[in-house]
Every structure is written in C-alpha cells, then in structure tokens.
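User: Okay, second chain of the day. Same drill as before: sequence in, structure tokens out.
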Amino acid sequence: MHLKHLYFSISQIFNFYKEGFKNLTLGKTLWKIIFIKLFVMFVILKLFVFDVNFNSIFKSDKEKSTFVLKNLTLEGK
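Assistant: Same drill. Structure tokens below.
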C-alpha cells in the first residue's frame, strides 16, 4: 500500500511539471537557450580550450612523478 501511495505522489508531481511546461512559451525558449549554453560550455570548450591535460604533457610515469614531486617540494616564494 505504501508503494502505491509513493507511485501516485511521484506521478502527480511529474504531471504537475509536465502540464506547467506544456503551456509555457517563454519558458521553452529559455530552456533551449540554457541547453545550448551548457552544450557549448561542456562540449565545445572542452574540445578546443581545455584540450591540454596531464597525460598530453608527460608521456611516461617517471616524468609525471618527477613533476609532481618537484612541485610538491617547492618552498613558498
């Protein structure tokens, strides 16, 4: 009985939001803009701006460990 009540509550919440978004015209446009901006931020910028990573700079594990050790043991300047 408890699961039936939980399912009914979740379906009511879902229907509430579904009906609300169905009647929005400005809201749909704003959501499209938000999704386009998120796509640009996470996909396009990731490919072209944030392409350099730790594995592309150093090829071997020895080079990586030397870099980390050297930067961890630097004294504050």
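The chain has a mean pLDDT of 83.

User: Thanks, on to the next one.
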